[in-house]
């Protein structure tokens, strides 16, 4: 890849990670103000889908439709795992734990993806990956236990922590499905299909849940939803998917290490959150372990 194109890809990736860090702050604001956030979650992805549809029309001249059962199956799988299930765990988890802690837990995503790829036979395990996975897991357990890495094993954690772990698993599934989807769809089309199918599922869940009153939403809720839709979804999802397509999943996933860093910084500035030293140490272990786990794969994808 030409140096200028690679620099642009890196710039977009870092910007996407900054925006994903901001989604934790926006999600926390919505979760604190609304007891029933699913309507906001659904509308977020409707707006994101409309933005992406406009980008598709401008960039590609048309909006392609999925063809056949396999492609439609990928569309609904993307929407279920990456939008619907992730959204449920994300908003209800943020009703119970702070944005900074939640983002540090989700930093485990690349390690989970590497382990799933190994268990499914797609990638080999090596000592560096194994050690990195153990370090990151120890750090994640420390963050989840609010300083006590054994809290998960003894059952001393709450529903919020379990829900954020659900974010990790659902995003890992979305990433693996996304690898398959990019064989059939462009990055923009992948984001479009995931947004609309996930929004429909979230909308049905919101109707079942009830308590839908957009007129009562504060400006903070509306502005947070707008940020989630345009920046946290339409742009960030598309730029990350495009980076996976250009430089490989392992190389691109290293940049996810920046998400918790940006999230903790923004949470401290905008929400006044302060994390304890033990939790910050656990977060550092997660980031270090993820870097060690994905570094070799990234080098291989950069220098094939």
> Helical stretch count?
13
Strand-residue fraction?
Answer: under 5%
- What distance separates the N and C termini? 12 Å
Radius of gyration: 19 Å
Helix/sheet category: mainly alpha
- Could you spell the SSE succession in H and E letters? HHHHHHHHHHHHH
Main β-sheet description:
none
Q: How many domains is the backbone divided into?
A: 1
Number-wise, the strands total: 0
The level of helicity is over 70%
Tell me, briefly, the overall form: globular
The average pLDDT is 81
Topology:
Blueprint (H helix, E strand, L loop, with lengths): L2 H31 L4 H23 L7 H27 L4 H8 L2 H11 L7 H18 L6 H4 L4 H23 L5 H23 L9 H29 L1 H6 L3 H14 L5 H26 L2
What structural keywords apply?
304 residues, mainly alpha, 13 helices
How does this model look, in words?
The chain is an all-alpha fold and 304 residues long. The model has no long low-confidence stretch (mean pLDDT 81). It has one domain. It is globular, with a radius of gyration of 19 Å. 80% of the residues lie in helices and 0% in strands.
């Amino acid at each position: 890849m030409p140096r200028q194109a690679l620099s642009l890809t890196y710039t977009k990736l870092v910007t996407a990670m900054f925006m994903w860090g901001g989604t934790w702050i926006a999600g926390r604001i919505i979760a604190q103000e609304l007891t029933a956030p699913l309507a906001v979650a659904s509308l977020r992805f409707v707006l994101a889908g409309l933005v992406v549809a406009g980008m598709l029309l401008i960039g590609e001249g048309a909006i392609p439709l999925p063809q056949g059962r396999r492609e439609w199956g990928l569309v609904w799988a993307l929407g279920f795992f990456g939008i619907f299930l992730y959204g449920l765990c994300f908003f209800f988890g943020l009703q119970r734990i702070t944005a900074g802690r939640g983002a540090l837990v989700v930093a485990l995503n690349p390690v989970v993806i590497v382990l799933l790829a190994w268990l499914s036979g797609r990638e080999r395990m090596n000592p560096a990956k194994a050690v990195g996975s153990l370090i990151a897991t120890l750090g994640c357990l420390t963050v989840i236990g609010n300083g006590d890495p054994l809290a998960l094993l003894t059952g001393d954690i709450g529903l919020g922590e379990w829900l954020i772990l659900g974010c990790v698993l659902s995003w890992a599934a979305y990433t693996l499905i996304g690898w398959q989807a990019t064989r059939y769809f462009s990055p923009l089309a992948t984001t479009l299909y995931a947004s609309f199918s996930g929004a429909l599922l979230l909308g049905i869940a919101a109707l079942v849940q009830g308590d839908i009153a957009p007129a009562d939403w504060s400006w903070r809720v509306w502005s947070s939803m707008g940020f989630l839709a345009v920046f946290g979804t339409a742009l960030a999802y598309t730029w990350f998917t495009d980076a996976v397509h250009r430089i490989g999943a392992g190389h691109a996933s290293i940049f996810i290490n920046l998400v918790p860093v940006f999230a903790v910084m923004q949470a401290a500035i905008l929400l006044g959150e302060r994390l304890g030293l033990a939790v910050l140490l656990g977060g550092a272990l997660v980031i270090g372990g993820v870097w060690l786990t994905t570094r070799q794969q990234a080098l291989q994808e950069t220098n094939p």
